Amino acid sequence: MKKALWLLLAAVPVVLVACGGSDDDKQTAQVDYLALPGDAKLDTRSVDYKCENGRKFTVQYLNKGDNSLAVVPVSDNLTLVFSNVISASGAKYAAGQYIWW
After folding, report:
1. Domains of the chain: which residue ranges?
2. Which class in CATH covers the domain with range 5-100?
3. What global pTM score does this model have?
4. Signal peptide location in the record (predicted)?
5. Contact, 53 vs 67, CB < 8 A?
């Protein structure tokens, strides 16, 4: 069985801004790559969010076949790749101790 590996995050810039810091704390990080098996087409989507305190941040959603990921800035210094987990709505993601709905 032939397995194709696809490049999911080729130099994807991730804004490291969560609801807590100041605009002066904005930083950018790059993820080199993340490969997943399969022939399905990669679907990417960036969604901008705004907190009650006015802070803005962007979450990048990556879907390929049965794999669904979300790249979420959880603080000014930490961005994690969340994996989709089983839930009634199908929109729940987890990364270690963190949950993203």
Report:
1. 5-100
2. mainly beta
3. 0.67
4. 1-18
5. no
Q: DSSP letter at 41?
A: P
Q: What is the largest CA-CA distance in the chain?
A: 51
Q: How far apart are CA 34 and CA 52, in angstroms?
A: 33
Q: Could you tell me which of 37, 29, 47 has the C-alpha nearest to residue 8?
A: 37
Place of tokens 């803005």: 56
Task: Enter the tokens of residue 100.
Answer: 């993203």
Contact 93, 70 (CB under 8 A): yes
Q: 15 vs 32, 69, 76, CA distance in Å?
A: 15, 16, 9
pLDDT tens across the length of the chain (101 residues)? 333 323 333 223 333 334 554 444 445 666 678 787 788 999 999 999 999 999 999 999 999 999 999 999 999 899 999 999 999 987 899 999 999 98
Classify residue 42 by its DSSP letter: P
